[in-house]
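Phosphatidylethanolamine-binding protein, Opuntia streptacantha. Tokens?
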Amino acid sequence: MAASVDPLVVGRVIGDVVDMFVPSVSMSIYFGAKHVTNGCTIKPSIAAEPPRVVIGGHPDVLYTLVMTDPDAPSPSEPSLREWVHWIVTDIPGGANPTRGNEVVPYMGPKPPVGIHRYILVLFEQKHPLGSSVEQLNNRANFRTRLFAARYGLGLPVATVYFNAQKESA
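Tokens:
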């Protein structure tokens, strides 16, 4: 019998971006009709606008969604790891990010070279974050783990990732 292997481990999401965690909330991501599954490929042109995100959980609980690219500017030399693409806080359980507080506006994938991973990480908040989250001066060298520690978010409750590469003209 073959052992099942977690795609988040195989894709080095666990390790490069987050620590090992036990998923406890459902999260589904869609770009148009395309349902994002771990490790699938999404064309940057399809992901130019924010995805539709469906979050489970209880309506009395708030969540933070973080989207990063740990492969910036190139997978072989990720000197800008992680490039933050989106942060939304105070999302009620059972709702979507439009009901939350967009701290960093969505930026679609624009991988200059190679295949990049785009990670969407969901954290359960212990309390409303409101305006306590500081504005970022730049999107480069963001650290999901440090962000989670700074705002008392703990380990993720859900994570989904997709791959994208530069489209030919």
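The chain has one domain: 5-165.
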